Amino acid sequence: MVSEELTTLEQLQTNLLESYQEEFPNDEPTICAFAPGRVNLIGEHVDYVDGFVFPMAIPLGTMIIGKALDDSITNTCYIRTLSKDVGEPKSIEIDLTKEISPLKSPKWANYVVGVLALFLERMKPTKKQPFRILIATTVPIGGGLSSSASIEVAMCTFLELLYKKSLTNGQQLSKVDKALLCCKAEQVYANVPCGIMDQYTACMAEANHALLIDCRDNTSKSIPMTNKEVCVLVTNSNVKHELVAGTYAERVRHCQEAADILGHKKLREVTSIKELENVRDKMSPVIYKRAHHAITEIKRTEAGAKALSNNDYTEFGRLMYESHESLRDDFEVSCEELDQLVSLARSVDGVYGSRMTGGGFGGCTVTLVAKSSVDKCIETIKKGYKATASFYQFVPSDGARAIDLKKHQ
Ligand code: GAF
Known about the structure:
Elements: H1 9-23, E1 31-42, E2 52-68, E3 76-81, E4 91-95, H2 107-123, E5 131-137, H3 147-162, H4 175-189, H5 197-204, E6 209-214, E7 219-224, E8 230-240, H6 244-262, H7 273-278, H8 285-309, H9 313-329, H10 336-346, E9 351-357, E10 362-370, H11 374-384, E11 390-394, E12 401-402
Parallel strand pairs: 3-5
Antiparallel strand pairs: 1-2, 1-12, 2-5, 2-6, 3-4, 6-7, 8-10, 8-11, 9-10
The structure holds 2-deoxy-2-fluoro-alpha-D-galactopyranose (GAF).
């Protein structure tokens, strides 16, 4: 086996049900919600400047099973994760009679608690419903495949199902509003000034399609990805460098500084590189480079979606390499390991393109490669890479959904 075997939804649900039954022997969950992680094909670090991004949902994700508790007995929500890699404690309790504030730790809980707090604030149910849930994710934590958004969106999906009967139609969330709510949870409760890409993908993605998202008006277009001769190979560098959170916020600030100098609300409004060149002497070299990345990346993403629609993989691949170079040199969010993975992939015949994906400083690369060259590509990376990588072959998946519990019991 060269690439990782993917845990199926059935396996994931079986694991969760087994743990549930061990903990609550005479009890059965009634709700099961799932939301996927994502891999971004192109359009990196431009969602928060209102740009275009082009991700797809992956068949890995977060599943939550649980049930409503009797509110005449308790006002508490019992939340527990089965993930080993997320830090301690693994269980938290939330008292619904009190205000729900961000927790100092554990970090994973803020994704859940943030969504719960904002859901209640937004939907204003007449009665707050206590519940018990178990959470498990198959998305590698900190791998740049958006484990956090998949937890948030799975949680929001669970709450929609929990409150299904008690909320009127007028109170239902649209998918875009759901993405916005989950994004706000990450910004406010996890304190990351992220854009909308990850939560939007987890809510809106369609199987066998990538999603071209316009982050200015939160609209999207699904682009078919059905060619069986071409494969999306994701390589996890298995490194995660420190300073990520602070550096992300710094990049967001740099882009806003550039937009302010250019007299725009966001860098998306810049129409050409010439416009940037005209004010180059008004900005520091660092701010210029950040803006240069964002402006060129937005153009590459539009061109990339067009190329993929026309099955022009060579052109798409060229844009992927350019994107990586821009992230490495202008935006400075790559690292030695990611650069090495990209150049090893590039050396293989049949590889169209490769780039870092996600926030950067570790995590994964995404490579577009002819199916017939996948094994060669993996072999070449394994041989040349300074650390140990893991590999995933992904087909685009559906967005968040309820999963039938009975089917797999
Ligand atoms: C992280 C963020 F959460 C996204 O909003 C996006 O900015 C991405 O980094 C970089 O493209 O995943």
